[in-house]
Amino acid sequence: MRSFQESQGPQWAALPGPQPLFLESPMAKRVFFSFHYQDVIDFRANVVRKAWVTKNRDQAGFFDASIWEEAEKKGSLALKRLINGAIRGTSATAVLIGSDTANRRWVRYEIFKSIEKGNRVIALHINGIRGKDKKTKTKGTNPLKVLGLQYSDDGKKVTPCYRSGGNWRTFEDVDTYTVAATAAKVKWGKTHSLHALGRKTYDWFADDGYNNLGTWVG
């Protein structure tokens, strides 16, 4: 998760490292944006942020560089607390997919903690947006297809996992937890990708994210 820098209008500091930002819609729905910092440098993530604000969504809060750096110095636990605190006040999470988003440790953490909390989680391809070099990129790997949940044999608990080398491996930053309702029996004892579990993916350009993002996180 990151904050943004604009060349005009309100100044949004481009911060080092993954900086949480959550924004609020006119209906007081807060959305947590998760993405790789490189997509802020390239300005693709900035386009999404600017569009969200332009359509009368107010910025509800973000971490400045000093807060993130201080937590980073203290270690992983401090970073987790920082992210957890930002997610706590939200009801939806939008994952902005750039070229390397799916591989980022803290993006994965943000996604799994959003799901554990009960947020609606969507993914959004942004490489079709022209970057500061005026070029587009091919789509990056969708994290919803390489992250998944392993269900217990009774369907009451899940363990976050990620794909590596064709196999599912435990994502150790997030513990196994009890789900709100027992899963359907077909899921018991199996691992399912987040995509297979129904989390939606869109394309900012092809699916008109400017006009539809509010509905997608609805």
Structure description:
This protein is of the alpha/beta class and 218 residues long. The protein is 29% helix and 24% strand. The chain has a domain of 139 residues: Rossmann fold (3-Layer(aba) Sandwich). It is built from seven helices and eleven strands. The strands form two sheets. It has a six-stranded mixed sheet with strand order 3-1-2-4-5-11, with helices on both faces. Strands 6, 7, 8, 9 and 10 form a five-stranded antiparallel sheet that branches. A hairpin with a 5-residue loop joins strand 6 and strand 7. Helix 3 packs across helix 4.
Helical proportion? Answer: 25-40%
Distance between the first and last residues' Cα:
20 Å
Helix-strand makeup class: alpha/beta
Q: Uncertain regions: pLDDT < 50 for 5+ in a row?
A: 2-16, 24-28, 58-62
Q: Can you summarize the main beta sheet?
A: 6 strands, mixed
Shape: globular
Q: How many strands appear in the DSSP assignment?
A: 11
User: How are the strands of the largest sheet arranged?
Assistant: 3-1-2-4-5-11
- The gyration radius over C-alpha positions equals 17 Å
Could you tell me the strand content as a percent range? Answer: 15-25%
Can you write the helix and strand succession as a string? EEHHEHHEHEHEEEEEEH
| Number of contiguous helices | 7
Task: Tell me which CATH architecture of the domain at 21-138 and 196-216 applies here.
Answer: 3-Layer(aba) Sandwich
Task: Kindly provide the name of the CATH class of the domain at 21-138 and 196-216.
Answer: Alpha Beta
Mean pLDDT reading: 84
CATH topology of the domain at 21-138 and 196-216: Rossmann fold
CATH superfamily placement of the domain at 21-138 and 196-216: Toll/interleukin-1 receptor homology (TIR) domain
